[in-house]
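Exercise 7. Predict the structure of DUF1102 domain-containing protein from Halorubrum ezzemoulense.
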Amino acid sequence: MSLNVSDDSYAYLQVEPTTGATFAEDDPDGLIQLNFDDTSGASGSGLNANADTGFGPEFTIANQGTDPVLVTIDPTPVDDELGGDGSLSFFAYSQEYDGKGATLKSTDQNSPGRSGVILESGTQVKVSGLFRDIDASDIDEDLSDASITIYAVSDNSELYPNGGPSDNRAGIRINSDGTVDNTG
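Solution. The predicted structure, encoded as C-alpha cells:
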C-alpha cells in the first residue's frame, strides 16, 4: 500500500520514513510504501489473523509551509479491501509527545471532529499505525494497490474551508517551540 498527499496550494508537507522504520520505505516513484512482508526486511509475512497489529513509528509528516495545518489520514481504500470489521488507523507516536496522543484517521476533511494533529510551521509528527480486527480470510489480501491519503488542511484551504486548525479541536497541537498541547 502507498501513501499519497492531497494537493492543497496552502499546505506544504514532507513525508519520509522514520529512521529505523520496519515497514515503510521509499519506492522509485517517490512514494512511501508500507510493506508487511519479507521485502521490508522484517521476518514473517502479512498480518495477524483475529488480532490487532500495531506498527511504528513508520513515517514522519513535517509542515514545511508558513501556516499551521490540521493533518489527518484517510485509509478508506485499505479498509474497503479488508472488508468485514477489519480496519487501519494511524496515530501520533505518543512516546514522543509526553504521552499525549491523537488519532489521525478521518474520512471527512471538512469536519474531522477530534481527529488529527495540528502542526505549526516547521514542526513534525511521527506516525504509528494499527490494523484492528483482521479476519483470517483477509490476512492474505493484496493491499498493494490500496493507497492512503494524507491531508494537511490550512485555514485558507480552497478544498476544505471548514477543516482548518482554527475550526477544529484535534487531538494534539505541536507548537513551533516544541511543546505539545492537548486540544481535544
